[in-house]
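Run log, item B.
One chain of 77 residues. Sequence copied directly from the ordering sheet:
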Amino acid sequence: MPMPDALRNNLSETRHASLALRRLLRELGADEALLRRVVPRSDERGADYVHIPPLPLDVAQHLVRLLPTPPAPMPHP
């Protein structure tokens, strides 16, 4: 369900990303129990991230097939 701009603007970037990921996973057939466990988090240093529980194999395979090419390796900090 799309969010009104006024509500979207009051969300943190991490919260917005977790909601967008929930929508994507829902479209891929993930069940509601899994979706409720996709949540924004931050660590003790204040770094933001999105917690993603283990995905069912079919959902993970579908996500990979959505990529136009294999992703490039990310540089290590």
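Observations after the first pass:
- The CA atoms of residues 64 and 72 lie 13 Å apart.
- The first strand starts at residue 39 and ends at 42.
Flagged for discussion on Thursday.
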